[in-house]
Amino acid sequence: MKRIIQITAMASCIFALSSQAVIAKSGLQSLSDEEMSEAEGQALLNLGYTAPTGASNSVTDFGFYKLGLEGELEINANIRNLQLGCGGVNGAGACDIDMENVALSGLPDSYAADGTPQWDNGRASSSATITNPFIEFAIRNPTSSALREVSGIRLSADQISGLLTAGIENKGSGQTTTDGIKSFSGYLQVANTPVTSRTEASIFGKTYDQMIYAQVDTDLGSSSVFSNVQGMNGGASPPSGTQWGTKVAEQAVNFIFPQTTIQGNRMSQLNLVVEGVPINPIAISAADGALYMRLVDPILWVNNSTFYMGEEGSNSWTVKDCAISATAASCGLTAQQKTWNNNLRNAGIPVGQMGCVNSSNAYAPNACTYITNLKANVTVKQNFNLVHNLPIESGGYLSLQKESIKWPGANSDDIAQRGWWMSFQDPLDFGALNPTERISMQDVLPQIATLITNYLATPAGEIHLDFGEALNAAFGLPLYKPLGNIDVTGKPAVLTLENLPLDNHQAVVSNCWGNLKFC
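Request: output the structure for the sequence above.
Response:
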C-alpha cells in the first residue's frame, strides 16, 4: 500500500510540474468575467438533477443526481465470473446476476453463411464503444436533510455498441452447458426472431393415449371401432412388409417470434410463446403402416380388422429440393423416389410439403388421408446458458436499488426491482434461433388422435364400407380406406421446444489472441 501511495504521489508531482511548464510555455492570459461569458466550449464532466415527480411512494418519486462524462470510451474486456447480489435481500442460494466467462468486444464485421460471427482482424482487436457514460444516484426525499436517503445507484451510458457474450462454446447435441448466463435479473426485449426447426419422424397410434375411435357403417351392419393397442403391442402380428402404427413424417416448423419483453428477478430461462404456427398438411398412405382396430359389435364373425389410411400401394412423400432434370443419385434418392419427387413437383406440390402417389407412382391426392389446417401454439423454454450472444446497439444500464425504481430515460415498463438489475433499452437481435435437434412429437400425437376422433364423429368424417370392402374385412383381408381431408381448423396442438441446442448464430468466438478459449 505504501508503495502505491508513493508512486501516486510521484506521478502527481510530475503532472503538476508538467502542467506548470505547459501553462508557462503557452502564455495563457487571464480573462475577465465579461470575456469568460463570451467564450464557448464543452465541459468534460457534467452534472444533472431530475426532481421527484411528487407521487408519494411512487417508483419515480426520487431525486436523481447524475454525473456524466461527455465522451466516447472504447473497451475490450473479459470477466471470468460476474456474480452480483448473491444471497442478500433476494434470498440465499442464488445470485441476482451470475454469468461465467463473460466477454465484451466490438460488434462483428460480418457473419459466416452458417451464422458464426466474424471479425476482420479477430475479435480481440475490436472494442465496444460506450458513448457518454454516467453514474446516477436515486435519492428518496432529496429536499429533506432529515429524511433523505440513497435508494439506488446505476451505471449507464447514452449509447452502448458491442457484443456481450457469456460461455466458452455453443454445445451440441447430447452435451451439457454449465457456464454462460446462469441467473439474470433485469429487463430485455427479444427482437423479431426467425425460428427454423423440424419435427421428429414418429410412429402414431400404438399407445393408449393415441387411440382413435370411430363409427363404421357397412351394408352388413354397423359398429363402433377403436385402436386395439394391446393387439398392436404383442397380441397380433402386422401384415408382412409393414408395421403396426402409422408413420408421421418429419415436418418443417418455421415461424417468427414477435418482439417479446422479458423481465424479472433471478431468471434462468427464456419463456417465449407464439400462437397459431401453421404445420404443413400431413399425408398418410398405406405404405406408412397399419392400425389394428377392434370392433365393439362384430360384423358377421369379425372382431378385429387391419386398417390402412390409404389406397393399396399408395405412398406419401415430402418433396425435396431436387431439380427435375437432376439424376436420382445426385439428390440422394432412389429411382422410384425421384419419380415420386418429379411427379409431385410437376403437380405443383411445393418443396418441403407432402403429397401422395398411387401404386402407379402417379400423383393421386385422393389415395391418402390428410391432416390439414393443423396449427400449433409453440412454447420455447430455453435456458439462458444456451443463449450466448447478446448484441447491444442501444442504451443500457446496471443498477443496484433497495426498492423498485423507474430510472430516467428507461422504457416505460422497465421498473428496476430490488437488488441488482441489468437492462437493455432496445430489442436485442439474436439473429436466429435454429434448433440443431429434431422436435419430439410425442406430446403432440395424443392431441392429433383426439382431433382425428373428433373429426370422425362428424357427418363429414363418417366411414362407410361397401359390401365388397366389408366382405374382405370379414375374411381377414386388410382394409384400405383413405379418409380424405381431416380438417382440424381452430383446434391447435401445443408444441414445446425446450432446451434445444442452437446453431452457429449462438456460436461463441474467443475474445483472446491465439488458440485460448478464454483469457
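The chain has a mean pLDDT of 84.
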